[in-house]
Structures are given as C-alpha cells and as structure tokens.
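Quick one: structure for this chain?
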Amino acid sequence: MKKMMRFLAAATALSAMQAGHAADGMFDSSSVELGGGEHVQVVRLAVQKDWNKNWLPTSGYHLSGYWDANVAYWRANQWLDVPGSRKNLAVIGITPVFRWEADDKLGLYADAGIGAALFSSVYRNTHRQLSTAYEFADHVGVGYVFANKWELGARLQHYSNGGIKHPNGGVNLFMLKAAYHY
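Got it. Here's what it folds into:
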C-alpha cells in the first residue's frame, strides 16, 4: 500500500509540475497511456520535450524527436507464476524518441525509442521474469495529431535488460496513448 501511495503522489506531482512548467516551455506536451500484456495492466503518465529538429526533409515530412519522462503503475496478476497472486509495481523512465512527422507536426506520425526504466521491484510475473530492476524500454508506435493539439496513438512496448543478467524473459505490452500539446 505504501508503494501505491508513493506512486500516486509521484503521479500527482508530475501532473502539477507539467502544468506549472508548460507556460515556460520546460515541457511541450503531456500524455496518459493505458494498456497491458500477458497478465499485466499498465497506466503511464508522461511529459515530453520536443527537440524541434528537421532532419531528412522529404515531401512535407521530416525526422525529429522528443524526450519522454514517465511514471507508471503496473498491476501484475500472476506474481511468481501463481494464478491469482497480484503485485503492484511503480516504474519511472526516460526515453529519447525519434518521430517521422509532417512539417506542421499535425496528422499521421510514426515513432520509435529506446530508453531506460527503473522498477520498484524486480518483475517476476508469469513465466516472464526479469532479473534486474533496471530495464531497457523500447517501443514502436503510430498515431495522429489533430489540429486542436490532441494526439491519439498506439504502440508496442518491450522491456528487457538486454541480456545483462538472466533470466531475461522480456515483457511485451500494447499501449494506447492520448496526449495534449501546449
């Protein structure tokens, strides 16, 4: 219960912090993601800072990117491979994300990133066990940014420690994202 309260406090602080810094340009957008994988559900809150780069311009599109800082709540539903056994985990992460987007930053996009995540405890859910609290977090995603500054997206997310230590079963998630750009 203490970990859950700490997670909620961190999520509240992150939300308040992004609202306070949106006006001064510290963050460009904030998002909420919902999803899950094999016997796990995830809620993630994040803030982003756009790199404002225009690499490889082609036919009205270019490569750019952003930093994504996030906190997440994971609900594991088969802890230690015992059906019905549950465990709540908090995860914090930072990811540099590359995005192929329109020059006006509206419409369809595709993005991919590889970052770092720190779990509140070592993940041991189902047969997908990880052996370290530090994990790499990589994803590929697609989405759409509307003219009213709202964004909807979907991504495939993968967590693993890159073979640093075994076991390293990896965790795969499907996530839906809603974001607002300031």
